[in-house]
Amino acid sequence: MLNNSIQYTIPAGEKRELLLINEPSINYHIVQEEGSSLLVHVIALPNPKEQDYAQHTTITVEHNAANCRTEIYGLALLHGNQQHHLTTSVLHNVGEGYSSQLIKFVLDDASKASFKGELKILPDAQHVEAYQTNRNILLSRQADMVTEPQLEIYADDVKASHGATTGQLDESALFYMQQRCIGRESARKLLLCAFFDDVMRTLPDEQMQENLLDKINEYIG
């Protein structure tokens, strides 16, 4: 059950950034007015020793006027019995809007995670662009990932897509790197950091990018 519930409106023309790093379970409901923009990062990098870590985050965003922009990015690296569950819902109620969701999880040991993403474009929401992508890597046979992307389009003049994949590290890429004198563990680190790179680069603060990259390297090791 979520511990906190927060609702607010982003006024016309304003920009908001929402950064959630190892936050407690929380539920956000955000309404965007005309020309507003929202940038959300949900990052789960708990200490590998925190075996009881379990996070449930729900983010609901509504576009209630034209020219709204929403970007949601998620990143999780879990170990042991840790859990991270992310639910997103982006509702395009009117046209001329843009939204994107990019969610990436890496699970090791017996960790569990889920992503449930709803993207809905209603009949009056013409000329909308909306995208949703979920990519996951399992480093252990015991790790468990559930992904449920959902796309509903009721308008006929839109650009929209969604997709999800779950797999393991590319053994051929590991082999290729080892053939060039890169140790297996170093190659593994490089591939996982590369996997997270497109999410990391969306953080607006370069120092924060570097700090989180250092943390990812530490946890992978």
Keywords:
globular, alpha/beta, single chain, 221 residues, six-stranded parallel beta sheet, 12 strands, 3 helices, 2 domains
Any overview of this molecule?
The chain is of the alpha/beta class and 221 residues long. The chain has two domains: 4-168, no CATH class; 169-221, no CATH class. 18% of the residues lie in helices and 50% in strands. The chain has helices spanning 171-178, 184-200, 206-220; strands at residues 4-10, 15-21, 26-32, 37-44, 54-63, 69-78, 83-92, 98-107, 112-121, 128-138, 144-153, 158-167. The strands form two sheets. The chain has a six-stranded parallel β-sheet with strand order 1-3-5-7-9-11, with no helix packed on it. Strands 2-4-6-8-10-12 form a six-stranded parallel β-sheet, with helices on one face. The model has no long low-confidence stretch (mean pLDDT 91).
Gist of the model:
By secondary structure, this protein is an alpha/beta fold. The relative contact order is 0.13. The chain has helices at 171-178, 184-200, 206-220; strands at 4-10, 15-21, 26-32, 37-44, 54-63, 69-78, 83-92, 98-107, 112-121, 128-138, 144-153, 158-167.
Quickly count the domains: 2
User: In sequence order, what are the helices and strands, one letter per element?
Assistant: EEEEEEEEEEEEHHH
Shape descriptor reads globular
Kindly name the structural category: alpha/beta
Mean pLDDT across the residues is 91
Query: What Rg is obtained from the alpha carbons, in whole angstroms?
Result: 18 Å
How many helical stretches? 3
Strand content: over 45%
Number of strands: 12
Q: What distance lies between the first and last C-alpha atoms, to the nearest angstrom?
A: 32 Å
